[in-house]
Amino acid sequence: MRQRAQKIFDKLGYRKIMLVAILLTGLILYAALVESVQGNTYDINLFQLSSETIRSEKTVEDPIKTELEKQRLAEEVAPSYQFIDEIAANQVALIESLFGYILDAKAAPENDKEQRSPDAMISQLREDLRLMETSENGLRLTDDMLRSLLALPDDSLLTVQQQLEALMETYLSEPVRTEEVARIRTEIEQDIRRNEQFPDNVVQAAVTIGRFGIIPNELVNEELTASQVEQVRNSVEPTRILQGQVLVQEGQVVDREVYRQLELAGMTEEQLDYKPLLGLFIFVLVAMGLLLAVMSRSKTESERKKTTELLVVAAVIGISLALMKLLYAVGGNFDFVIAFIFPTALAGMIVRLLAGERAAVYVTILISAAAGIMLQSSYSASLQIDVALYILFGGLAAIYLIEQDGGRGRLLQISLAVALVNMLFVAIYLLIGQTQYSWSEIGFYFTAALVSGLLSGALAIGLLPFFESAFGLLSTMRLIELSNPNHPLLKKILMETPGTYHHSLMVANLADASCEAIGANGLLARVGCYYHDIGKTKQPQFFIENQVNIGNPHDRLPPEKSRDIILAHGFQGAQMLKKHKMPQEIVDVAAQHHGTSLLKFFYYKAKEKNPDLEEASFRYRGPKPQTKEIAIICIADSLEAAVRSMKEPTSEKIKKLVDAIVEDKLKDGQFEECDISLKELKTVKAVMCETLNGIFHSRIEYPKETN
Question: What Pfam family does this protein match (any one) (predicted)?
Fold first, then answer.
């Protein structure tokens, strides 16, 4: 299965696989969240009974009610009036003109009998007064009224004029509105009738002229009124259908108003709001872009490992979304916010152990945001911030509590710590919220927080082996388990090849210290060293470290036979490790720790008999070391065996030996296929010298006892 996956990777290329994985993850994320952002719709028909109580899932404006409210308030705005003092002068001028026309008619030449006849003068006055008669107020003087005015002497006529003008100035000096005109005209009529200055025969004409002169002088300022109306309309707050507001009760008739509100809230089946879908698309686009950036900047140098880590992240996101969907499906059956049961630290734990801290932090943020969208506890189709923060805090707590040397037991302890963080957040949630909670609700939320933490650890422990097997990953926890001396294969090495076991421990110390010094994986190197010579358990007596109190069997064998036995232990060890389903990294250490180096002792021994012997037949089958860790193990393996055979090792001798072995490996091209640099090799040599000096330091010679 793993080889088939490797072929697919090699054929498509890791970059294409990364893009496909990002695309599929985005599609899964979109599909999982699309139902949550769309909200619920109902099969509602007009004038039928509602089968359930429906609440609005969002706050929306009701434009019709808003406009009705604006109209109501606009109608209540009192008109703004403006007093025009020129109107009094204008009306006085009209009266003056009226009497001027009368005087002009009376002043016709005495010898012109036609013009001085009453009918001619009235006709002339009618012509002069035509504009006044056709005006808005309409001066209505009858022929009898005109005759009475024409019959007055000029001085009496002047007195009537002056009295009318005085009354006009008096009444129009105060504001007169349109609705007050009738009242003021009645008052001026009464004043005229009581005034003795008006002859009896012209009283009715004076009343008509006085009533004609009274018009509104305080008029509505249309521009100012319109501005005030507009200001009032603009000040009206939009009428809204509020989130959580009951739109229709169960059993209530769905009338036109209720149906209109359901349509506004987007809760009828005929409607599809594209805005949430577009918003979700942008969210997924940004999330996947950031995920690609985070995974591309991973400290892992191998593109294959980067792709594998991305696949792990995608799988974790998928599992988390599946758990959310499960909670979302059953959440409506509870009165509590069951989202608090969600295992907050599950994603962070798995990604932290398999793909690194940076990826784990981002995945935790992404999962918390997705949970905030999906696991809503209210009627809102938006982000549920309390759930998002709850998962974020729990996930980050787990990520920063996990250590490189932690095992599964440590993971359980971290789960308890996550549970504590969850309960602290629940306490914050209950205290900050304005809602009153019953003791049963408080108990549920704290229990859910505890279950969430423990469930995170339990699921992480249960899922890690599947991730490691499916993606060929080797986690820190797995390495720690493999380093346990009680592991069956390590017991086999100890029992059957005790010398090899001791040799492996020494090589492990050297390799671990050297890898840590250059930033490589020291734990991987240490564990790999424990198993690198397991192939020697096939024929332990043919390896010198296991030849205790026995002769060397190679002395009785031809060089070619000894060669076959020695060269086979790397390949045989790799096969044994594969058979026991050990991680590929450990298998690679067994297969590559000698690279393609030459088995010099038996090669030169065989060459004494056959000078034409090919050197290639006495080289290990390899391949050459592919990683820094295996290159360092290759050096440490050769160095430990050489130092162990050295008599009275000193610092100077050890340094020369280290330099010689590294130089020999370089010249032989053993490090051509890995990315270890000369600078790093220099650091490795210094660390190995220091470590060996610590092991083989000179000891004080204690004096013998004398009797």
Answer: 7TMR-HDED
